[in-house]
Amino acid sequence: MNPSLTTTWQNDSTITEFAPNTVHYAESNVTSIAALFGTVIASLLPVLAIVVLYLVIDMPKRLGLLAVFTASFSMSLWLLTEGRPIEIFSATAAFSAVQVVFISTNSGSP
């Protein structure tokens, strides 16, 4: 990295001189918002998966949706957490297993 840029970013008054229209946020604020976003996604994705799988009757469509929801869950864990690959794999396997059990015991909406 260019040493002059490193020193430029260490001094707030210099930052506003070169980028006056730039907004700077504290790292703790950004981390808190990201954690909140991750928590909301983690809470809503399983519920959304079950509701959608309940409403779809056709089994091939359900299996396709299961793959989409499982991939979405895995990608959200990968992007929004600092989990190790084994932790992400384990959580994804558990999520997928719950969906498979739901599909196999529920024939769809009445």
From TrEMBL:
The chain crosses the membrane at residues 33-56, 63-80. The keyword Nucleus does not apply. InterPro entries: DUF6594 (IPR046529). Keywords: Membrane, Transmembrane, Transmembrane helix. The keyword Glycosyltransferase does not apply. Residues 9-100 form the DUF6594 domain. This is DUF6594 domain-containing protein. It comes from Tothia fuscella.
